[in-house]
Input
Amino acid sequence: MIDFLGDVASFIVDNWWGSSGFLARTVEHVWLSAVATGLAAVVAMPPAMALGHVGRGTFLAVSVVNIGRAIPSFGIVAIALPISIELGLGLGFWPTFIALFALALPPIFTNTLTGVKEVDPALVEAAGGMGMTGAEILRKVELPIAMPVMLAGLRVSAVQVVATATLGALVGWGGLGRYVIDGFSTGDNVEVFAGGLGVALLAIATEFSFAVAERRLVARPLRVAARAV
Amino acid sequence: MLAQTGSGPFIRWDWIWSHLDDVWERTVEHVTLTALAVGIGLLISVALSLLALRFRPALGPITWVTGVLYTIPSLALFAFLVPITGLSTLTAEIGLVSYTLLILIRNIVAGLDGVPAEIKEAARGMGYTRARMLVEIELPIALPVIVAGVRIASVTTIGLVTVTALIGQGGYGFFILQGLRRFFNTEIFLGVALSVMLAVLVDLSLIGLERALTPWARRRAAA
Output
């Protein structure tokens, strides 16, 4: 066991630099995950905020999250491949990106909608009584209060995306999954373990960064442990 | 190589019809892997939840450990286990069970915690022992919340089983992986569609089971 872990450590050290080294793969993994999650947030948040503001879309929110859960993330990656090929985008980056983007949408959408919608109506009414417009109510009252729930949605999406980016290696992309998938096919347990270690640490780091972000972005009285819906 | 991309229909139904025996075999595998994982996960979760409810300080560490397990990507967890337990069903099940724990424990604890204190007081006053109170009073009242957890755990597990194709298991995931390797769309879509259908079917069955087990909830709604 000690020998094995020593082999893993030297594998990582020996393969640290270079264009397909551990460092480059980690950067690639983080970069694509961030872009996919970020773009999903840009696309999903505005309609979710609007629906939450007018107090509609509960059924939609529940359906989106249920459907999202029923489709396996491996399935999303696999389906993204023929779609990408049909669109003439080929292997590698695009199918991975399409899959991760699609995967990130449901938790962000549902949590944003629910968070905004669940704001105490008395507060919204009071804000209206003070002469705030709808947009002001959304920006100054509803969004700050919904922030913990919205961040929880972003966190769930980001962690899921980092995890699933590992499968990108199956459709010809790089990232840390490369080591796991290549190691599986050659029966190299050291390589498999090294890749797994990288992915696991990245996922835990992502979770942790959102915990830190929450401390900074959420007003103190609202800091309850928000859970994804 | 099955030359299919670019030419011919997107889905080849004739291929599916001629592979129905494979579909059946993978269905059995998928259901078995899922049932084992959720069943074992439920046993462990009930035990840990009861421990946490009797001895509160244990709840924090239990939630923390199962939370970390839940955060570790499935493929990474399999990567850690393969050097020890190989490309086996055991590896798949250890991973699958780990992912059910956080969801199940959270719901079991929330459900049992939600039983009103006055009901427990009344049961104690009527001379119920702790064990009898748990089985006859607390569990039935907590059932809807617990079943909600079992539903989420089951649907999540059905999706995760497909990933175990990478370690030689996989149920419907076998079709997906095979389709990816051969660039054969029909097999990819078959695997994904079957997995989604199984998830929906199991989810609906559990809703039905909950209704059957809590007849009073319907009576109250009707009243």
